[in-house]
Write a structure and sequence with these properties.
Distance between the termini: 28 Å
Strand content: 15-25%
Order of helices and strands: HEHHEHEHEEEHEHEHEEHHHEEHEEEH
Radius of gyration: 20 Å
Low-confidence stretches: none
Number of strands: 15
Mean pLDDT: 97
Strand order of the largest sheet: 2-10-9-8-7-3-4
Largest sheet: 7 strands, mixed
Structural class: alpha/beta
Shape: globular
Oligomer: single chain
Length: 368
């Protein structure tokens, strides 16, 4: 894959959004126990699976959900695509804030929809929404895809920020797809707020997606869940999913997710403490070795946003030096919103600290 994307395969892979940590033993053990029953036929989620989902959402994010308000999804990117197909028509417009996770830009266009981009600002080292710009761009949009916490950069949107987003969307008739896949990776000292909880309008005019995949390193199992409180929206969307048979689930997705959310809290806390150390490692390295490089450090997740503008290199030169001199694979900032981000790259901190340090030392040597 590295060779196909970067032209060589001897790179430190600091780009793909999963972690270089083993999947927790309690998940592997649960999967092994199921394999002792040597029939891998059709499966339905059990009552204990749904109970575990509800307890996690309520206990961590104060989402008062019932079983019928949830639906299995084989991945959040797929889930967002299904919302676009179920609720919009070619030519309709979806609102995003940029820079943003590339599928949020690409999925609507693939389906013949338009994308309206509201650029974020960087204020005191974190992303901030330009509410005046968001208000103007919301006019004529049907849905907003909200990255909460934000990807890239890991900014945690607070209660007041989300309430203002909800007010703007409500006034303009815009419903919200809330991608909260990184919620469980909110780092020490920060608190995730689920979009659906900030106001009655937010609750009734949104669909929320969550998943254990990033937090517990089980993305390959394809296990996500969506939550929709509004009965009309829920009936339309869940009928679409069931009618097309696109979100039935599978044995290992159910088992892995239940083990993660049922047994994973202690492991999650230890993992977050380690990631916080990696964030501090990046912060300190940049301050000491590359002070011209500006970063949006994550408040949630293991993804940081690096801005190399002050070094004075062209985009092509940055790419060349990172790949062929540093031999480090990062995510190109232009994929998160176009040429405005051609001096930026996303880096994955979900790795052993020694790997992160080596990557940073290679980057400094190649760029300075």
């Amino acid at each position: 894959m590295l060779n196909a994307l970067y032209g060589r395969d001897d790179l430190l892979p600091m780009w793909v959004a999963d972690m270089d940590f083993h999947t927790p033993d309690f998940i592997i053990d649960a999967l092994r126990r199921r394999l002792n029953h040597e029939v891998l036929g059709y499966a339905l989620p059990t009552d204990s699976y749904w109970d575990t989902m509800c307890r996690w959402l309520h206990g961590h994010y104060s989402i008062e959900c019932r079983r019928e308000e949830l639906h299995f999804i084989p991945g959040i990117v797929a889930g967002i695509a299904y919302v676009i197909q179920a609720f919009t028509q070619p030519g309709d417009t979806l609102l995003v804030t940029t820079p943003v996770y590339p599928p949020f830009l690409n999925l609507p266009k693939t389906d013949g929809r338009r994308v309206e981009c509201s650029p974020l600002r960087v204020v005191e080292g974190r992303f901030a929404i330009d509410f005046d710009d968001l208000e103007q761009r919301a006019k004529g949009c049907q849905w907003m895809i909200l990255s909460n916490p934000h990807n890239p950069g890991g900014t945690v949107w607070g209660q007041e920020t989300l309430r203002r987003v909800a007010d703007i969307c409500h006034r303009n008739g815009v419903r919200v797809i809330a991608d909260e896949i990184h919620a469980d990776m909110t780092l020490p000292g920060h608190k995730h707020v689920s979009y659906s909880t900030v106001s009655p309008e937010a609750r009734e005019e949104s669909i929320t997606f969550v998943a254990p995949s990033k937090t517990f390193n089980i993305a390959g199992l394809g296990s996500s869940v969506c939550y929709c409180a509004n009965e009309e929206l829920r009936h339309r969307f869940y009928s679409y999913l069931d009618g097309y048979g696109v979100a039935g689930g599978n044995i290992f997705a159910f088992i892995g997710a239940e083990a993660a959310f049922g047994e994973g809290e202690d492991w999650r806390q230890q993992m977050l403490a380690y990631l916080q150390g990696n964030v501090e490692c990046l912060r300190d390295f940049l301050a000491q070795q590359m002070p011209a490089v500006k970063a949006v450090l994550p408040e949630a997740s293991y993804l940081a946003w690096l801005d190399f503008t002050a070094l004075g290199h062209s985009h092509k030169e940055l790419e060349n030096r990172l790949v062929n001199s540093a031999r480090v694979a990062l995510n190109d900032g232009t994929t998160f919103g176009g040429e405005a981000y051609d001096q930026c790259f996303r880096i994955n901190l979900g790795c052993p600290r020694a790997t992160l340090t080596e990557a940073l030392e290679r980057i400094a040597k190649a760029l300075l």
